[in-house]
Structure formats: structure tokens, C-alpha cells
Amino acid sequence: MGNVFQSGAFLQQCFSVHPLSLNFKLFAPPDTIGIFCMNCKSRHRLTVGTITRVIGDAEWSEEDASTKLETCASQHQEALHVTEVSVDRDIVQFRCRKCRTGFQATVSLFETYQP
Q1: ∠ CA 42-44-46, rounded to 5°
Q2: 84: Cβ contacts below 8 Å, ≥ 6 apart
Q3: 35-94: per-residue pLDDT in tens?
Q4: On the chain, which terminus has fewer CB atoms closer than 10 Å, C or N?
Q5: What is the CA radius of gyration of the chain?
Q6: Residue 79 phi, psi (nearest 5)
């Protein structure tokens, strides 16, 4: 078994160095998101507190944001991609290319599994 790190620094580094290699792999409601880095083969697991929809520069705290993310993840997972990682603010943002919806997740725990 590989190493497990409880730090957002590894996801931040993946996003900084090779952002197009990050693939959205899993949303297990109510609070788990999985991201896989095809470049370094790291698996990033996020435990999230809140999920909001982002429209333009404004955050819309909607009750259905989790439901909408779940729908995107199940129907067109390949269209979801990471658009921002901020360990300082404990957030990760995603965007769905297909339905053009943005999501912001407030992360309470970052975990990285390295092979």
C-alpha cells in the first residue's frame, strides 16, 4: 500500500504543475469527492463541508448544489474538471463543461494516496 498524506499541499502541487491531468472520479454524497491525477497517479480524497454553485464571480448558496454536482458526476463525469485549488482558503472549485455550471467545495479534510 502507498503513502497517505493528510495535507492539501499535494493537490495544490498537482493543480499547479499539471492541472489538466486532474480527473474528477467520485462524488459520494454527502461529503466525499475523489480526484485522480493521471500524471503522478495520486488519488486525492476530499471531505467537504459545503458545496455551493458558482455563477460568474458570485457564489450562490443553493440547497440543490450537492444534487446538481451528483447529477453531473453520474451523467457526465468526464466533463467535470478542477478550476481552482486554494489550500489557504480550504476550497476546491470545479466546472462542468457540459452544463456550464461551477461548483465550490469547502474542504474540511484533504487526503492524498500516493502509489
Answers
A1: 175
A2: 15, 91, 92, 93
A3: 999 999 999 999 999 999 887 665 566 668 899 999 999 999 999 999 999 999 999 999
A4: N
A5: 13
A6: -85, -15
Strand partners, 93: 84, 104
Grid cell digits, residue 47 = 471531505
Q: What is the pLDDT of residue 96?
A: 93
Grid cell locating 69: 454536482
pLDDT bucket at 10, cuts 50 / 70 / 90: very high
Q: Which of 79, 74, 14 is nearest to 46 (CA)?
A: 14
Q: Say if residues 49 and 66 touch (Cβ distance below 8 Å).
A: no
Asked if 47 and 29 touch (Cβ cutoff 8 Å), the reply is no
Residue 70 in grid coordinates: 451528483
As a whole number of angstroms, the distance between CA 64 and CA 29 comes to: 12
